[in-house]
Design a protein that fits this description.
Radius of gyration: 20 Å
Helix content: 25-40%
Shape: globular
Largest sheet: 7 strands, mixed
Length: 390
């Protein structure tokens, strides 16, 4: 098969690799029809996740067709049109039984690294380094899906591939971020980052009862989509003092709920903060650039909630714990347990309440994968998401 592989920092290559095979009776082999880039992939591309090996296949958001199923698979058969949740659960451990699939105890066959770093072993993730299982990703002709009855979902008739694709990752991630923010009717919600996940967090906040959503980014094309598709108020942080603007829009209180969809490579307009973060990150004295998260904590109203969706890998300097404590903030975070939300999300799509297809701004063949990632990384041609069709 053909596959887009990581070869080193900012080096990708399309290679011919052996087709995947069933390893466990609960496995399924999927022929990939569509596979999307994701902002979290850029952390791999930029070399900030240390457990990547040359030749690893990237990609974790995909839609395809079942071509082979193991003897232990009961819900899928050849020809089924499916999406796979990017964060893998086993369905049997205590976290999975609590529907906390992103905390699965069994889906990561390489638990040592995250156990040492975080105190407990973390779940497996498609195409996201050997720390998270070493699973081959979806930027390929075929992909093996473990624990298929837990992690695969049939796409309902009448929902197009373009609408269904992002139910694999971007939609449930944004939905989860809005859900754990504990949004109440009438709330004002601020969302940092208007990439695919941020766009879906905006839509999800309204679905959960928010009265006003404020979107924060520096790219005008993304802010335009947040306004047009999401119904948000857009703030360009290169043109506004975000804290002052948020206070002005909320009668001096600050947003009730703040959602960070940026993560470890955040930019800052404050030159000292930006230089400090970039220097420490470059010297590996910290792993994160935390400008967006700091701003969310600083701006959230007293007694509010900060929901963290952006990918963070390790350690951040200058974390404003004093603001968290003295403002009585609640912080929640996590990788998305998308298995919990898929049926609900498909119902929203079928009811016409949600259409994620606008995230697909560019399509490309897998052979053009390196160029597609370059376009995505540098935000050229108003690129929000590139989708490969292997």
């Amino acid at each position: 098969m053909r596959a887009l592989t990581w070869q080193g920092t900012n080096r990708l290559s399309v290679e011919t690799l052996p087709d995947p095979e069933l390893i466990n009776p609960r496995d399924v082999i999927v022929r990939v029809k569509l596979s999307s880039v994701c902002g979290s992939d850029l952390h791999l591309l930029d070399g900030y996740v240390p457990t990547m090996h040359a030749g690893d296949v990237l990609g974790h958001e995909f839609l395809g067709e079942v071509v082979e199923a193991g003897s232990g698979v009961t819900q899928f058969s050849r020809g089924d049109r499916v999406i796979a949740i990017s964060i893998l659960g086993c369905g049997d451990c205590q976290p999975c039984q609590r529907q906390e699939f992103s905390c699965c105890d069994n889906s990561n066959p390489n638990p040592t690294f995250t156990q040492e770093l975080y105190g407990h072993a973390c779940t497996g993730i498609f195409g996201y380094s050997h720390a998270f299982g070493g699973y081959a990703g979806s930027h390929a002709t075929y992909v093996r899906v473990p624990f298929a009855d837990v992690n695969l979902f049939k796409v309902p008739e009448g929902i197009s591939d373009e609408k269904a694709l992002f139910v694999s990752d971007a939609v449930p991630t944004g939905y989860y971020g809005a859900d754990i923010a504990d949004i109440e009717p009438g709330d004002t919600v601020a969302v940092w980052g208007c990439g695919g996940v941020g766009q879906m967090a905006i839509r999800s906040a309204y679905l959960m009862g928010a009265e006003q959503v404020i979107a924060i980014d520096r790219f005008e094309d993304r802010l335009h989509l947040a306004r047009k598709q999401g119904g948000a108020i857009g703030l360009n942080y290169t043109q506004h003092d975000i804290h002052d603007a948020l206070l002005s829009l909320t009668g001096g209180r600050g947003p009730d709920r703040c959602i960070d969809c940026v993560g470890m490579e955040a930019h800052s307009e404050h030159k000292l903060e930006d230089v400090y973060d970039r220097t420490k990150q470059m010297m590996r004295l910290q792993t994160e650039r935390g400008a967006a998260l700091r701003q969310a904590i600083h701006s959230c109203r007293k007694g509010g909630t900060v929901s963290v969706l952006g990918v963070y890998a390790g350690f951040m300097d200058k974390f404003p714990i004093g603001a968290v404590v003295n403002k009585a903030l609640t912080m929640k975070s996590g990788q998305q347990p998308g298995q919990r939300y898929v049926e609900r999300i498909f119902e929203h799509i079928q009811a016409g309440e949600l259409d994620p297809s606008y995230l697909m701004t560019h399509t490309a063949s897998l052979e053009d994968g390196p160029q597609g990632y370059a376009m995505f990384k540098h935000k050229s041609d108003d690129c929000l998401r590139v989708v490969f069709a292997p």
